[in-house]
Amino acid sequence: MHAWPASEVPALPGKGRDLRIHDTATGGRVTLAPGPVARIYVCGITPYDATHIGHAATYNAFDLVQRVWLDTKRQVHYVQNVTDVDDPLLERAERDGQDWADLAERETALFREDMTALRMLPPRHYIGAVEAIPGIVPLVERLRDTGAAYELDGDVYFSVDSDPHFGGVSHYGTEVMRTLSAERGGDPDRPGKKNPLDPMLWMAARDGEPSWDGGSLGRGRPGWHIECVAIALEHLGMGFDVQGGGSDLAFPHHEMGASHAQALTGEHPFARSYVHAGMVALHGEKMSKSKGNLVFVSALRRDGVDPAAIRLALLAHHYRADWEWTGDVLDEALDRLGRWRAAVSRPDGPPADALVEEIRGALADDLDAPAALAAVDRWAETQRTEGGTDEGAPGLVSRAVDALLGVAL
After folding, report:
1. Which residues contact 200 (CB under 8 A, 6 or more apart)?
2. Residue 43 annotated as part of some ligand binding site
3. Is 23 assigned a ligand-binding role in the annotation?
4. Where, in this chain's numbering, is Zn(2+) bound (predicted)?
């Protein structure tokens, strides 16, 4: 599966700072100091409705992580998956009378278009669950053969008790985990499981549903968590720098994925840090496909909204915050974009070297994009009211905003 084209990232004078970011697993900030190549895995979409503002906010957060790393003169090895076969996708296809594969392909293509328009840097590896199945099957067989997994009526489940570090990502209690498991694709009440929290690794073929050759597992399809584990282990290996996604993925997805990988390899941790973005609401409720309260990036683009304004609307909120999308949010972003473009369109302006360092410092401090925006606002206001004589300043500001914030002026 191919990703989307990369926008050019302008080079800036000097060098960026190492990123301090909130790690869910430790509950505090950690300094990310990767080697020459920083490794990040961000969980992708299930393509039955793409791309709403909640998706865009999550991918914007991890795009900032990449930009901070690139500014430190590192390379970035970014991997993202597409869950192109799963129950929600199959249910939507059946509801709408569509072929599930056609639905997945169409929505994935739309996602690519949205990411391109928003200037999100693409992953080096963009892998669908279906194409990952040949690598998933041997992992499930290994877990089963070592006693970390078991069969139940033809399905294969992972035993969470096989990983002594289980619970170390989310730190939720058992009852909270059980509740969230039921809400987020698990089946804690299924009779015969060794532990109600045990997640499915391989689902035996069901009538009327797609299935693939699973070798000794029989025909079927993979569970959700093992998909990401197989892709991450193949392309990044254990101990990569950041596992990212929305806050609703901390449990069960990232918790279970970590345990799968740790049971497979005997190593810990799966990822050095777990970074989670907040949720976006509409009309007082979390924006979600199940509720249908979605604002789509593609719809905004069709209405003529500049993608740079959409991105500024996302950047106006701290990545870990839960916030609500409103018309005012977009209006404020459009106004800011206009002010910034007017400021950099002049032939000279106030010196901007300090501004670049202020943006760098804000982003290095747990991706504080609102503080970075406020710094550019101050420069633009000085430009408007006082002007300046530095001929290189407007161009430097334009390049810095592009390189570090992903906004083209």
Report:
1. 155, 156, 157, 158, 187, 223
2. yes
3. no
4. 43, 228, 253
The strand pairing partners of 75, in sequence order, are 37
* Two tokens, residue 239: 């101990």
- Is 248 annotated as belonging to a binding site? yes
44 is in an annotated binding site: yes
> Out of 3.40.50.620, 1.10.3720.10, 3.50.50.60, 3.40.50.300, which CATH number does the structure's domain 21-286 have?
3.40.50.620
Q: How many Cα atoms sit within 13 Å of 23 on the Cβ side?
A: 17
Query: Known binder of ligand: residue 83?
Result: yes
Residue 54 counted as an annotated binding residue: no
Q: Structural domain boundaries of the chain? A: 21-286, 305-405
Model-wide pTM > 0.90 = yes
β-sheet bridge partners, residue 30: 21
Q: Is 81 annotated as a binding residue?
A: yes
Q: Strand 280-282 and strand 125-128: pairing?
A: unpaired
The CATH fold of domain 305-405: Four Helix Bundle (Hemerythrin (Met), subunit A) (1.20.120)
On whether 224 is known to bind a ligand per the annotation, the reply is yes
Give pLDDT tens digits for 71-123.
999 999 999 999 999 999 999 999 999 999 999 999 999 999 999 999 999 99
- Order across the sheet with 149-152: list the strands: 149-152, 155-158, 200-204, 220-222
Q: Is 326 annotated as a binding residue?
A: no
Q: What is the pLDDT of residues 114-169, one digit of tens each?
A: 999 999 999 999 999 999 999 999 999 999 999 999 999 999 999 999 999 999 99
Residue found by looking up tokens 């892998």 in the block: 127
247 annotated to bind ligand: yes
The reply, when asked if residue 253 is annotated as ligand binding, is: yes
Contact assessment for residue 260 and residue 34, using Cβ atoms and an 8 Å cutoff: no
Whether 246 has a binding-site annotation, put simply, is yes
Q: What are the structure tokens assigned to 103, written together?
A: 């639905």
Residue 155: what are its φ and ψ, rounded to 5°? -85, 160
Distance between CA 225 and CA 231 in Å, rounded?
10
